[in-house]
Write a structure and sequence with these properties.
With 287 residues, this protein is of the alpha/beta class. The chain has a single domain, classed as Rossmann fold, CATH 3.40.50. The chain is built from ten helices and eight strands. Strands 1-2-4-3-5-6-7-8 form an eight-stranded mixed β-sheet, with helices on both faces. The termini are far apart.
Length: 287
């Protein structure tokens, strides 16, 4: 009896707390949709002084992993400076493509679009300005972010299409933007090869695309710098705001210091130029 009482007193509260713990160091988590027999979550990071009555800028971060792996915790290295700067940051959990000959990232695109729509439709609850929502991600996450902005395909049947999934800005780190036959990533997939335009953001550039900032590696063979340069040139030719920064390194260079700190500074400068973040020394809430 004494052992049982001690167990109840010492361990059950700890177990209950463990069950309630939110992964990836997030402040909140919420289910944005159910698909494929599972609940898909958004992990929310709130800045100091946050209140539901705020109208803060937001970054919806979509992790990489080749569309077949990775986890929302990847937001940690890139997201913290933006929370500190006063933004609300969301990290997206999404379904993965099935590996093999029939490789198809359509469900990944569907989920990314659903997540953007969810944040926008619940902006008031999150203390977010629905007109200052950026999408960003690394590698395949960059592809999914750009897909939300540029691809007219792969909207989930359950989504409310009256809510736009188009972000107001794009932050693209070593992004896979070109899925075409001329060096595009995953172009060897029979599914993508049959319909490149349905999957490839680079093949869907139009006027009115969100302002974008890109970061590419000179030795990157997954997200090739010449293709990012071409994407940037085509965006500008269409009258869009697009800036590319090139660094030495292979795929994964964005995770290395001091490169990561420099990238974060440039993203902060990008949001400041857009008027989303105040100039240094000015309170975010004074806007």
């Amino acid at each position: 009896m004494l052992k049982t009482a001690l167990f109840t007193m010492l361990f059950l509260p700890w177990m209950a707390a463990a069950e309630k713990a939110i992964p990836y160091g997030a402040d909140e988590q919420t289910v944005y949709k159910e698909a494929g027999g599972r609940a898909l979550r958004l992990f929310v990071y709130m800045p100091k002084g946050w209140a539901a009555t705020d109208r803060r800028p937001a970054l919806v971060y979509i992790h990489g992993g080749g569309w077949v792996g990775g986890n929302p915790g990847a937001v940690g290295s890139i997201g913290k400076p933006f929370v500190t700067a006063g933004m609300v940051v969301f990290s997206v959990e999404y379904r993965f493509a099935v590996k093999g000959p029939g490789f198809d990232p359509a469900v990944c695109i569907e989920d990314a679009k659903s997540a953007l729509r969810y944040v926008r439709s619940h902006a008031r609850e999150f203390g977010v300005d629905p007109d200052r929502m950026a999408a960003g991600g690394s590698s395949a996450g960059g592809h999914l972010s750009a897909a939300c902005a540029l691809l007219p395909t792969f909207d989930a049947a359950m989504d409310d299409k009256t809510v736009s999934c188009k972000p107001n800005a794009l932050v693209l780190l070593q992004p896979v933007l070109d899925n075409g036959p001329q060096g595009g990533y995953a172009a060897n997939s029979p599914v993508i090869k049959k319909n490149v335009k349905a999957y490839s953001p680079a093949h869907n550039i139009v006027a009115g695309a969100p302002p974008a900032v890109l970061f590419g590696g000179r030795e990157d063979i997954a997200a090739r710098l010449p293709l990012l340069e071409k994407f940037t040139a085509n965006m500008k030719a269409a009258g869009n705001d697009c800036e590319l920064f090139a660094y030495d390194g292979k795929h994964g260079f964005v995770n290395q210091q001091p490169t990561l700190s420099d990238i974060n500074e440039k993203i902060i400068a990008f949001f400041t130029r857009l008027g989303w973040l105040p100039a240094p020394g000015v309170s975010q809430l004074a806007r």
